[in-house]
């Protein structure tokens, strides 16, 4: 690209729903464009609130390297002919970072903004803005600064072209991404401007002289520029099942008003249900047949399993073929006989796709029919096949369980279970509280000594022990609480074993108690649980006469309950998707519904090699509350289209939806139990950041941290909508505690929470791994952020800088106050003095002024509110500048697997970091101890001085009005620099001389 020929092209297409300003219910509007010191103006459209200009202007770009700092301003005015003046109708501002090449430019309709807080505006302005590098295009002639009242018409005028607004209007909320790979190529526009209108026509309005370009996604990045643009969020304007998404709204049409799948693109499939066959002809010498069915259309085919020696087989399977990939007009359903060398042909049925009926739910499912088999010549033969063939969409009931042509090629029905979409429900988890009180009449193996007893409690793979009690008695007392996690249905037993530590490393079992969890009492609050005595049983079989002779009657005193008043944390506390307690009687009604449409993924990195080329077999997993969903696996595709929609009930806005993308590693010969599904990336969306009723269609970058650094694995296109069903309940939620009541009445320690969360994740992973298709452990752990508590130098630095950013506001206020005290701006300083004296004179105005100021700040920031859900920020995460050794440390196993020399180096580095943290903590403690020493007489002279000062201050304050004291202190602090000294003040010197307790530190 030759930078000297760069120009900024702006096509003013039209406006919509402008504010009437001429007193007759209309406006005569025109547009003025400002960019890089140049100004252009369109013609006037008389008496039109939705004018269409279709006028194009070209600005010179003086310095292309400075383009990202420039802005394009567009003002709409109403022309007042009588007075040769104009009135303001609205404006928009477009940053230079949003300019894209012509090949990627589309018409965007920008909501008009106010010029001031008192302005009244409405409507949208449609512009097409792009960068062009074509020497044949000449720049437009700008308007002189003195020509404000004249209306200058551009030489390349075009007749007004009425454009279907439902087809072209994209409401602008974020800025397009100029660094996207699809935006690197550009082509010059046609010189004849009047042909450009054809680019916005529908398929029915195509102009033969110019080919219709492919549909463009409106890719936009978030307002923050703290990280590379390629890693930022991008908003799109797709055409979904409910209609075009424009500005977060679905623009419906009459024929789409009843669509239930309105957050995904409607996809048509040819469904073939193969039910059964009867009276198949014998093909073997034994007079039998081993039948299976092969469904073929073009290059796609699906195969059922075969039955041994069965002339009346039953399959009842459904095949779904993507209609957009079909390259044939005939469907063949062939029955074959399984053979060792070559399968024999039995018969077939043919269907013309033009005759296949269309089915749209809620229509009843199509009834299968019997079809006579025919030979290859079309003549009827013996045997019949029961089939149902129809065309439907992903809203069809058969869609989730069907074998999909876009998910796999030539995969039999047995293997297709690994690629189907499924909905999973995680088990309901309970906390099990075991209070081991005491034991009675323990009988050790050695009668000459008292037992050194402890109790081992086990539920499944969870094992905890009480502390050993070395008591001079056979009735040891523990009174310890042990906590476990259990899942419904309760399949495990609670096993308690009393053991005696005979010698170091040698324990002997005294007795055992087995309690079924289904028999344990449940509670939803902190009511007292009645204790029970349980008889200990000998662990091995002994002679009954010997048992009677020894009178084995040892008992164990326990309190056991299932605590349902807690929420069992099975995910990171920062990204919880559910905060309800376990007990259902404590659940409140839902506040809304969350709908997710998983549209597609683009630009995925190859995760494996097949037939000499890189490819991926990806599926998506979404997790919210107890409900997990998994889309079907799209095989051998780096730009898969899922178009599946799911729904959840929302009970709390402070929850997070997590969507992850994974590569299926269990297809074909490589699938094995030792292979793990590879993570591609994930997205988190907090429900409280979503506006009610708005449709968010964004393309999320899939960012993953690898040992080599942060890497973008592709983009995931989602459509999200949160609908509030009870606004009052949602507002009430903001006044409720985040966690259930029991977490505050009987809280757990941090160590207990970490241990219980680890056990909960293992239980959920084990249960979901037993489903079909299984949701494997590595998927559950990645979605639940199981490793978020492990040490990471990168994460520690990120949290430190987050903490520092919290205080940037205070630092800014301190710097501003320092400038006031130094009289850098005398006018501002005088105004602050006046305001300060006014507030001192009327102290009752201080709090109202503070709250009014905060109110005004909030109202002012409303116009700059984010219009997109927050996403992962590589700059905030310190993922861009992280050292390779720190990444290697972060990806190290726990416990470590590195060499002792490397571990020693990292340990020394950790000691250095911890030493600096230790110094900061010590300095903060020192300042607090100095405050304490003011009145503690640790320094008798300092305390005597301070006590004397307090007495004098009390007398002065008693006789002097408070306003006078406050005014003198404030004026003294803001005194002129000529009255200041560089040395610290007397109070600071006095405070720094006070003693602290660091003198007592070893």
From TrEMBL:
Keywords: Calcium, Membrane, Repeat, Transmembrane, Transmembrane helix. Residues 141-160 are annotated as: Disordered. Residues 141-158 have a biased composition (Polar residues). It is a multi-pass membrane protein. InterPro entries: C2_dom (IPR000008), C2_domain_sf (IPR035892), C2B_MCTP_PRT_plant (IPR047257), C2C_MCTP_PRT_plant (IPR047258), C2D_MCTP_PRT_plant (IPR047255), MCTP_C (IPR013583), QUIRKY-like (IPR047259). SUPFAM superfamilies: C2 domain (Calcium/lipid-binding domain, CaLB) (SSF49562). It is found in: Membrane. PROSITE patterns: C2. The chain crosses the membrane at residues 800-818, 830-860, 944-972. Residues 1-110, 251-371, 410-534, 575-700 form the C2 domain. It comes from the Eukaryota. GO terms for cellular component: membrane. May function as a signaling molecule by regulating the trafficking of other regulators. Belongs to the MCTP family. This is Ft-interacting protein 1. The gene is FTIP1_10.
């Amino acid at each position: 690209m030759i930078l000297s020929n760069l120009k900024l092209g702006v096509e003013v297409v039209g406006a919509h729903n402008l504010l009437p300003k001429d007193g007759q219910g209309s406006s005569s509007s025109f547009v003025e464009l400002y960019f890089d010191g140049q100004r252009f103006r369109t013609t006037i459209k008389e008496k039109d609130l939705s004018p269409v200009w279709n006028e194009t202007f070209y600005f010179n770009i003086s310095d292309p390297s400075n383009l990202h700092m420039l802005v394009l301003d567009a003002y709409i005015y109403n022309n007042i002919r009588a007075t040769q003046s104009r009135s303001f109708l609205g404006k928009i501002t477009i940053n230079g970072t949003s300019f894209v090449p012509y090949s990627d430019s589309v018409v965007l309709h920008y909501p008009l903004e106010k010029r001031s807080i008192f302005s009244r505006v409405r409507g949208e302005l449609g512009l097409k803005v792009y960068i062009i590098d074509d020497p044949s295009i000449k720049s437009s002639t700008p308007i002189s600064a003195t020509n404000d009242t004249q209306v200058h018409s551009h030489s390349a005028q075009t007749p007004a072209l009425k454009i279907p607004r439902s087809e072209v209007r994209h409401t602008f909320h974020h800025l397009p991404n100029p660094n996207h790979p699809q935006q690197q190529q550009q082509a010059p526009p046609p010189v004849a401007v009047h042909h450009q209108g054809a680019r916005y026509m529908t398929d029915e309005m195509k102009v033969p002289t110019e080919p219709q370009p492919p549909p463009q996604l409106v890719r936009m990045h978030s307002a923050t520029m703290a990280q590379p643009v390629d890693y930022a969020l991008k908003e799109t304007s797709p055409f979904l099942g409910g209609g075009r998404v424009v500005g977060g709204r679905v623009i419906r049409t009459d024929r789409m008003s009843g669509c239930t799948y309105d957050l995904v693109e409607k996809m048509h499939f040819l469904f073939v249900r193969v039910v059964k066959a009867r009276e198949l002809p014998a093909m073997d010498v034994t007079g039998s047949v081993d039948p299976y069915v092969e469904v073929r259309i073009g290059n796609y085919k699906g195969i059922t399993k075969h039955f041994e020696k069965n002339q009346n087989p039953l399959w009842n399977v459904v095949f779904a073929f993507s209609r957009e990939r079909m390259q044939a007009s005939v469907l063949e359903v062939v029955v074959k006989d399984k053979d060792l060398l070559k399968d024999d042909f039995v018969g077939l049925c043919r269907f013309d796709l033009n005759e296949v009926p269309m089915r749209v739910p809620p229509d009843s499912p199509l009834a299968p029919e019997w079809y006579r088999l025919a030979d290859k010549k079309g003549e009827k033969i013996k045997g019949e096949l029961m089939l149902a063939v129809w065309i439907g969409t992903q809203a069809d009931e058969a869609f989730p369980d069907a074998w999909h042509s876009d998910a796999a090629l030539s995969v039999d029905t047995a293997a297709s279970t690994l690629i189907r979409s499924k909905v999973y429900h995680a088990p309901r988890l309970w906390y099990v509280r075991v209070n081991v009180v005491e034991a009675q009449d323990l009988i050790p193996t050695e009668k000459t000594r008292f037992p050194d007893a402890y109790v081992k409690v086990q539920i499944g793979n969870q094992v905890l022990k009480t502390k050993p009690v070395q008591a001079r008695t056979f009735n040891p007392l523990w009174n310890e609480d042990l906590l476990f996690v259990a899942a419904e249905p309760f399949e495990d037993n609670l096993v308690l074993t009393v053991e005696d530590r005979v010698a170091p490393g040698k324990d002997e079992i005294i007795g055992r108690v087995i309690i079924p969890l289904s028999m344990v009492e449940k509670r939803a609050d902190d009511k007292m649980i009645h204790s029970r005595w349980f008889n200990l049983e000998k662990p091995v079989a002994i002679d009954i006469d010997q048992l009677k002779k020894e009178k084995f009657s040892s008992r164990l005193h326990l309190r056991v309950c299932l605590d349902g008043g807690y929420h069992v944390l099975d995910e990171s506390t920062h990204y919880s998707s559910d905060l309800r307690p376990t007990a259902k009687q404590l659940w409140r009604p839902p506040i809304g519904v969350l709908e997710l449409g998983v549209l597609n993924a683009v630009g995925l990195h190859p995760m494996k090699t097949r037939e000499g080329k890189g490819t991926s077999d990806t599926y998506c997993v979404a997790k919210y509350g107890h409900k997990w969903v998994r889309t079907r696996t799209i095989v051998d595709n780096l730009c898969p289209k899922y178009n599946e929609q799911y729904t959840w009930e929302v009970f709390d806005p402070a929850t997070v939806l997590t969507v992850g993308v994974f590569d299926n590693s269990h297809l074909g010969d490589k699938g094995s139990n030792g292979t793990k599904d590879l993570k591609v990336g994930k997205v988190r969306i907090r429900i409280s950041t979503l506006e009610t009723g708005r449709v968010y269609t964004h393309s999320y970058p899939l960012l993953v941290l690898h040992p080599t650094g942060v890497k973008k694995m592709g983009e995931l296109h989602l459509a999200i909508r949160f609908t509030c069903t009870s606004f009052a309940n949602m507002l009430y939620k903001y006044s409720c505690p985040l966690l259930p009541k029991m977490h505050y009445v009987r809280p757990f320690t941090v160590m207990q929470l970490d241990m219980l969360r680890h056990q909960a994740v293992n239980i959920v992973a084990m249960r979901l791994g037993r489903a079909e298709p299984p949701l494997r452990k590595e998927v559950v752990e990645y979605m639940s952020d199981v490793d978020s508590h492990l040490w990471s130098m990168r994460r520690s630095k990120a949290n430190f800088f987050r903490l520092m950013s919290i205080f940037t506001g205070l630092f800014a206020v301190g710097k501003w106050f320092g400038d006031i005290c130094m009289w850098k701006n005398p006018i501002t300083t005088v105004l602050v003095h006046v305001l300060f004296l006014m507030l001192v004179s009327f102290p009752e105005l201080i709090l109202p002024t503070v709250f009014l100021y905060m109110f005004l700040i909030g109202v002012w920031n409303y116009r700059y509110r984010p219009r997109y859900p927050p996403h992962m920020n590589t700059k905030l995460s310190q993922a861009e500048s992280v050292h390779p050794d720190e990444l290697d440390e972060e990806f190290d196993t726990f416990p470590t697997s590195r060499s002792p020399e490397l571990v020693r180096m990292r340990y020394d580095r950790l000691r250095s970091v911890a030493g600096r943290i230790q110094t900061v903590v010590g300095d903060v403690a020192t300042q607090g101890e100095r405050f304490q020493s003011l009145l503690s007489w640790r320094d008798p002279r300092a305390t005597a001085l301070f006590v004397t000062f307090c007495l004098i201050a009390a007398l002065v304050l008693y006789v002097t009005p408070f306003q006078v004291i406050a005014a003198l202190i404030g004026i003294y602090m803001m005194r002129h620099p000529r009255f200041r000294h560089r040395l610290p003040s007397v109070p600071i010197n006095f405070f720094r001389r006070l003693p602290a307790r660091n003198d007592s530190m070893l």
